[in-house]
Structure prediction request, 268 residues.
Amino acid sequence: MYTYRRFSLGDEDALVSMLEAQYPWFFKDAVWAWKYKKNPYFNPNLVAVAEHQGKIIGCNHWLPRKLRLSKNLQVSTVLAGDLVVNRQYRGQGVGSELLRVLRTSDLIQCNGISLSYMFPALNLNKKIYEPVAGYVAAPSATRTYKRYFSCRELQQKIESIDSKIKVNSEIKARLQGFNLCIAFRLLGVPNFSLQINSEGISFSENTQKKPEVVIEGILPLTAGIIEGNIRPRSLIRSFISGKLKIKKGITKILKVKKAFAILQEASI
Prediction:
């Protein structure tokens, strides 16, 4: 019979002894104290332990984090740390239950935690983390997010395009009398908007209050547009297939097509 509870400071010696016995090459020379106890983010209530007949046989660690999604958006999250079970008790559901103890804890709601993330080996994610605790492996789009939707980097990309427009008389001529504000609401990234007019193109992290066009869709496709890898014809197919959706301003689709064509031309 196994019992599960939150960690208390009186558990430290028994917990560290268990960890050192399982992974002596890693948990040695006060590694646990450095990684957790002395960590300024450490919260003992976010550590779960499993016991058998009063002996600690497993543990699971979380560390609270503030994750900045954009310049003006910061959320409370937890970084999932070491999940360890004594070898003698593995294969009996102890690790799975330790995951559930923290995932279903009232601490999530009380602390306004909106996301739990971790960096496991992919085979472990498929075997335990995804089926038991609902973790989802981040798709390749995450690399695109890191590259483009760090708002600073995206803004730098737009500024680079804008500088090219300003010195290209042909593109400037095509933009005479042109004015369009497009708001983007993409899955998993902060909202942003692009203002395109005869002066060039500008980026805003917060969408305009009254954009002429609102586009919803997926990140890789939009990043491809910004990078200049999506041709106008493919762009139209993306709208037809539903990969991109115009939620507002459908009558301006030709204007959107022209804006993206200019954007791509200036990206080259």
Summary: Residues 156 and 199 are 17 Å apart (CA to CA). The first strand starts at residue 2 and ends at 6.
